[in-house]
Amino acid sequence: MSNVDDIVMVDADDVSLSTVIPSSSSTSSNTNDSSKPDFKPVDPKELVNGKIQTRKVRIPANRFTPLKNNWMKIYTPIVEHLKLQIRMLPKARIVEIRTCKDTEDPSSIQKAADFVKAFSLGFDVDDAAALLRLDELYIESFEIKDVKTLHGDHLARAIGRLAGKDGKTRFTIENASKTRIVLADTRIHILGSFKNIKIARDAISNLILGSPPGKVYANLRTIASRLKERF
Fold it and tell me: Which InterPro entries is this protein grouped with (predicted)?
């Protein structure tokens, strides 16, 4: 028997197109409806109320007395504005922060922890409070040995170049780069935006490597003038 005899002929009038070729639009809509679940937006309060978050910040011994003296300046914005709970543990030298039922934003606890951490590193309470208001501020810490290994008198001279007479060099770098700098022995902490931190870090690194302060000032003036032109 030939292959021609095996072919079954179907009249086009007897079969509609809908039975032979299913609609692509209906198939895709059914597939999309079944594969994509519909989630409702989550209320931030549900995240806070579901689980209490806690942060602990250890305070160095040399910063505990300033912490007690400025406690109300630290306590007020965290409790009244961020709606968080905070307490001081004098024996352990720890500040504990946690969320509560009144907390509106679950990410505010990280801002509060960064604020207390910045104060513990040596920043002024008013400068550290900027971390609560602005999202693009960061803290970068490094040591002098990360730039260049120095010992003895060479290390002392490098620290002297960073500070300058009566802190003049540090103030100049802060004003030119719009940052805040803390010199804690061989550790350096910089508070500011990402680009401004890079400007201050480059200037400090050049001083550590032995560049004269006059040359560093000239570079900072050039950078400061460029920043003014952008704005």
Answer: KH-I_PNO1_first (IPR055212), KH_dom (IPR004087), KH_dom_type_1_sf (IPR036612), KH_PNO1_2nd (IPR055211), KRR1-like_KH1 (IPR041174)
Instruction: Enter the pTM of the model.
Output: 0.71
Order across the sheet with 180-184: list the strands: 138-143, 187-192, 180-184
Is the residue at 28 inside a domain? no
CA quadruple 49, 107, 63, 154: dihedral, nearest 10: 150
26-64 pLDDT, tens per residue?
444 454 556 777 777 655 555 545 578 889 999 999 999
Same domain as 143, residue 98 = no
Return the bridge partners of 75, or none: none
Q: Are residues 159 and 110 in the same domain?
A: no
Per-residue pLDDT of 93-118, as tens digits, reads 999 999 888 888 878 899 999 999 99
Task: For residues 85 and 109, give the distance between their C-alpha atoms in angstroms, rounded to a whole number.
Answer: 9
Give the domain range for residue 95.
Answer: 44-133
Instruction: Give the residues across from 8 on adjacent strands.
Output: none
